[in-house]
Amino acid sequence: MSTPRIETLARKHRALLRGFRNQEASLEEYLPRFALRHAEKDLLSRTYVALTQEGGVDRIAGYFSLATVSVERASVEEIPALSKLPKFPIPGVLLARLAVDTRVQGQGLGRHLFEEALGFTLSLATSGPVAFRLFVTDAVSEDAVRFYERFGLSRLSKALPARMVLDLEPLLG
Ligand SMILES: CC(C)(COP(=O)(O)OP(=O)(O)OC[C@H]1O[C@@H](n2cnc3c(N)ncnc32)[C@H](O)[C@@H]1OP(=O)(O)O)[C@@H](O)C(=O)NCCC(=O)NCCS
Q: Which ligand 1 atom is the nearest neighbour of the CA of 62?
């Protein structure tokens, strides 16, 4: 796989959206069916695609989507640093989707995309005009839970999809 370049999803990528493959049907269908509409019309989430070149042709090797979220204060009672916060909903950035094409999984792209999404979030938390405390995702499977646990996210529910959170405060210095 060539080194991927990450771009904000836009209409120019439209022809590539149907070529993406993932074992989670909802994550495969999201790109051609909803991603552009959610980003440009409904304003629900913004998607970033990782493009690789194959025989001079661009292909979407992976993507992630970001939105905002509010996490119920009672759901983080088990996490000591968060359990001290006032009893209001806790604001955060939601990693609404993350997926790597099945043909290039296991080569480090998932980690790269996760770090990119967290990097965007940390720069917004550091120098953006808003404050928020959490990086949040909803893991679709037990495999996904294990993937996110590697990056320090804590699981809040036994059921799937499982909400998972990362406290950003220690990362903001
Ligand atoms: C989860 C997913 C994004 C990982 O992408 P990937 O490119 O295969 O992952 P990477 O090669 O970057 O692996 C990153 C790390 O996670 C680990 N990992 C990857 N898949 C894993 C899994 N299913 N369970 C546990 N660990 C996993 C790797 O061993 C690697 O660890 P290391 O860096 O310490 O060696 C991809 O498998 C996928 O699209 N899965 C289906 C959709 C999904 O579950 N999305 C996330 C939840 S919504």
A: 39
